[in-house]
Amino acid sequence: NLAKGKIIGILNADDFYEPNTLNCVADIFKALPEPTFLVGNCNIWDNDGHLKYINKPKEMALFKLLLGPYIYQFPYNPSAYFYHASLHHKAGLYDVDNHYTMDLDFILRAVQSSTVKYVDQVWGNFREVEGSKTFDDKSKGLATKRLKETLKKYEGDLDFLSRTRFRFRIGMKNIRHFARRIKYSSLPKKIVLDELIKSP
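The chain above was modelled as a monomer; its predicted structure follows.
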């Protein structure tokens, strides 16, 4: 509510932009319709200052995001995305009472209410370090549970076609998971397959 500009970017404590990111983003927005959610890549750094990986959220369709980050990555940190301030009029504000997944919660609403553009450039840097909220939540084993709950919340927003595609992908994911269990199971494969056929 306090932001007065037309474009919003958020930089949390200890996070930082790559050089020239703001100039680059400002130029890109000149040709984008309003509202647009603009996404780039983000470096994820560990406790010792080593690069763990680069978050590249190339696919931002809602049904793909709902499949989870092991299939399609969502933007892990706001240092790598920007959007028109007017998007809040359509997608709503951040849920400030949701201290752990408020960013993802907003993204899942934002992609339904805006033009989404991905640019394959590193814009943000996120330090996932010991003592931080994200690090501690993962260490306690709570992050995955919160993630699943947030994704589940938005399944009902899918249209019929997207919901069908989503269910198909979930089914294929479960089959692949079961196939891995068969591969490493000590039981004869026929017995395991028979049990699968019998199960609802």
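The first helix runs from residue 21 to 29.
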